[in-house]
Amino acid sequence: MQPLTSYFLSDILEQFGGLPEGAVVEIPAPSSEEVYGATLGQFTQLGTIVLVLAFMGSISEERRSGEVKMLLLRPVSYASYWFGKFIVSSTVMTVSFILGIGIALFYIQLLFEPILMSELFGSLAMYWLWLLFIIAVTTTFSTLIKRQTVVAVCSLIFVFGLQMFASLFTSLASWTPGALPNLAVAMTTEEIVLPIASTILSIALIAWMSILYMKKTDWLY
Prior knowledge:
The protein is mostly helical. It has one domain (33-216). 75% of the residues lie in helices and 0% in strands. It has helices spanning 2-7, 9-16, 32-55, 60-65, 67-73, 78-111, 117-144, 148-168, 180-186, 193-216. α3 (32-55) packs antiparallel against α8 and α6 (78-111) runs antiparallel to α7 (117-144). It is elongated and about 60 Å long. The model has no long low-confidence stretch (mean pLDDT 84).
């Protein structure tokens, strides 16, 4: 919706803005990069909430209902179980992201100036990695906590807190996963190695800690 809203904003204001008769609304047309950035901004806000709510019960619900006990009685390791949940959630997220951003990009390319594909692919890759990090965080809290509402609250506080920290302390947090959304919006290729590396390492560390917690505690009970 963001590309269409940006393109027809003047017409919308003229029709529904309650302006005096004869008033002319002149709003400079945004660039395709600005519309793309606004689109990712919507993904960052609403998309994060949707992801967390969609997958907050991926493990916690099975723990609460006792289904996980039956699953792990079979020759299924904790690592296989955790990564199975993570991969399924990541696959659903990836398909949804491709569909959503694909529709948005179609209208951006149709209504505005084309975006360079080299910059676009790099930006989308960084943003997809950020979404993967959100999945890892949500899956981890779902591993640690049985109540889905608490999982959602903890996940959202952690993710939005990390983003806020990266926005407020840009230079200090430029290497953290929270810097990825801003880098993706800026479509920059500078100083991206550290945040990408830290995000990949964070996902690996989160997975390892989750599996270790499952092994070292009475997790099934």
